[in-house]
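Lecture notes, continued. The same structure-token format from the folding unit now serves as the input rather than the output. Read the line below as a description of shape only.
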């Protein structure tokens, strides 16, 4: 019955050539019996949606039938994108493992698997239609690959070629640019950047006194670094939060803002200095602005800033 055909008929569709003709393209449809019973001639048909007009030289004038030569099947254009494929006199029964393969032309071109619609079905008058198992779902596993220029190009003048993995990577790569002073908020009074130089802080430690413990925990959580409170400071791989009277010059005069701070990034040490905890916090924000957190890379920079309250 219909269920047997729907469950055991393997359908494979593939585009062969878009370039041979300027008006049509060539495809191939292969029907294979994966079951143990013969699939014979009968009053059944395969219904499917297809975005291009099949065999336009024939179905434009006579939508009701195009008998495929030496195959024993015919195409019928029902309406819009709906077609059916049904056996006619001369159809040879398909026994187990046997297949029927034939080529046909369609209008224009087809360059992607998604040009083909899923969920073909078998129907017969008076019986309930059954989805063809091979075409069910949206994975389009019954559609062949577009792996040659004849398949992926629309015309002979088409300059498109699929991107290779290396080309795709190049397309999505984002150039790492050094930050301009205006990209750091608040805007630094003074900023010096070591162009293109970064410090990797993957295994660094944040060193601070107890009074800046909250700020250290905040920064440690952002950068996934461990914290040392009142521990001995070595000379390398240390990010220090330091209470210090930072001298920030504004028009030649020293700033008196309690939120003033300095951030200094060197190859083996990073120091955030400020007279108050609020300055340390703002310094942390500036440090994060010049840090690739995912890669744990910090731009080598030295900057002074103060907050106007």
């Amino acid at each position: 019955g219909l269920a047997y055909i729907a469950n055991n008929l393997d359908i494979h569709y593939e585009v062969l050539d878009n370039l041979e003709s300027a008006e049509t393209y060539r495809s191939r449809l292969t029907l294979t019996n994966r079951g143990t019973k013969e699939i014979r001639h009968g009053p059944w048909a395969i219904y499917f949606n297809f975005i291009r007009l099949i065999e336009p030289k024939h179905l434009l004038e006579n939508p009701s039938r195009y008998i495929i030569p030496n195959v024993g099947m015919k195409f019928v254009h029902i309406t819009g994108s709906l077609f059916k494929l049904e056996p006619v006199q001369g159809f040879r029964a398909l026994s187990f493992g046997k297949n029927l393969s034939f080529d046909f032309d369609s209008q224009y071109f087809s360059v992607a698997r998604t040009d083909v619609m899923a969920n073909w079905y078998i129907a017969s008058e008076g019986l309930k239609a059954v989805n063809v198992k091979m075409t069910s779902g949206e994975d389009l596993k019954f559609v062949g690959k577009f792996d040659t220029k004849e398949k992926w190009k629309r015309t002979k003048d088409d300059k498109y070629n699929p991107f290779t993995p290396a080309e795709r990577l190049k397309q999505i790569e984002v150039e790492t640019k050094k930050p301009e002073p205006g990209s750091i908020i608040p805007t630094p009074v003074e900023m010096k950047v070591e162009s293109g130089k970064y410090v990797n802080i993957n295994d660094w430690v944040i060193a601070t006194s107890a009074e800046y413990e909250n700020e250290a925990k905040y920064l440690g959580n952002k950068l996934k670094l461990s914290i040392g409170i009142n521990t001995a400071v070595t000379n390398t791989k240390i990010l220090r939060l330091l209470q210090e009277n930072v001298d920030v010059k504004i028009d030649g005069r020293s700033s008196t803002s309690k939120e003033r701070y300095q951030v200094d990034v060197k190859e083996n040490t990073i120091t955030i200095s400020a007279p108050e905890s609020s300055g340390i916090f703002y310094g942390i924000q500036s440090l994060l602005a010049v840090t690739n957190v995912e890669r744990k890379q910090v731009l080598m920079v030295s900057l002074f800033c103060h907050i106007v309250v």
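Point for the exam: The mean pLDDT is 91.
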